[in-house]
Amino acid sequence: xxxxxxVILVCQLIGESIVTALHLPFPGPVLGMVALFGVLxxxxxxxxxxxxxxxxxxxxxxxxxxPAGVGxxxxxxxLKNDWAPLGAAIIGSTVITVAVTALAMAWLSRMTSGxxxxxxxxxxxxxx
Amino acid sequence: MxxxxxxxxxxxxxxxxxxxxxxxHLTLTLVAYQAGTWVYRRTGNNPLANPVLIAVxxxxxxLLATGTDYATYFAGAQFVHxxxxxxxxxxxxxLYRQFAHVRRSGVAILASIVAGxxxxxxxxxxxxxxxxASASSVISIAPKSVTAPVAMGISxxxxxxxxxxxxxxxxxxxxxxxxxxLVLNLIRVxxxxxxxxxxxTAAHGIGTARALQVNEVAGAFAGLAMGLNALATAxxxxxxxxxxx
Lengths: 128, 245
Fold this sequence. Notes:
With 128 residues, chain A is an all-alpha fold.
């Protein structure tokens, strides 16, 4: 387990280093994700110990945003000036973006895969 | 009577000691999140009972009540915050498991994310502008759907306030995790790939976290969308911005 956590950290370190060195408009950890993906392709599968580390982290992904969420408190003053237009923009734009992205994907994947494809197979579940 | 129970003075000493150590705020973060998760479960995983929102509201209330500043809180909470990086790297795992799905619909994925990226920026800036927000607020909200470090960079480049952008990004993530599933049900999109892609594009990591809890296909697509939307918005927004403003 510790070995695979180390591999994850090494991937992140590689990602952060490349992003910093090349001034890429990209978060280091996302490039680290690409690096770990490369490891999985080389391994031809997800080793059990890595799955345990990764799935534990991802099962609690929401928790990891709590400190940043509390940080919004530090910006109350900044938000105070334009709170109404900013609040309306967040809600309105988020609803529109979810709808546009989902409808585009549903429509385009139907177009490109020609009729009922894997989307329905994987999407047969309850719309929760 | 031997002194076995601590007196008021001792309690004060204990408080002073704990308030200065990272243990207290680290523990409070975990306790608040578990309380949030408990409520979320009790409501049958209703997206409106978002555990992040519940934990944040509880913690902000507590910090304000005890007069604790954010720097003191973060000294403890940073250990949780640090794990965001490794968790983002670990998104490669669901992506690898679902890669057959991804490869089959590569073009559709890219086109949908580009559409979502432009929609997110223009609708956010447009609504804020129409309702009379200041110029710097309009710029700061444009990259609100992108993961925080990239959004702050874009905001800075266009002349916004990066710290305001960071706050708006978090609020957008929580809003997306709460309203996204309801919108998707309303427009009757049941394809897990489309649902995940929409959550990751509109609400970055917080939307991805919600998608992962519901379905692994959705989680994999959300994580992919979060990464690609960061790239798409970083490249496209400065170009689109010059066309419109």
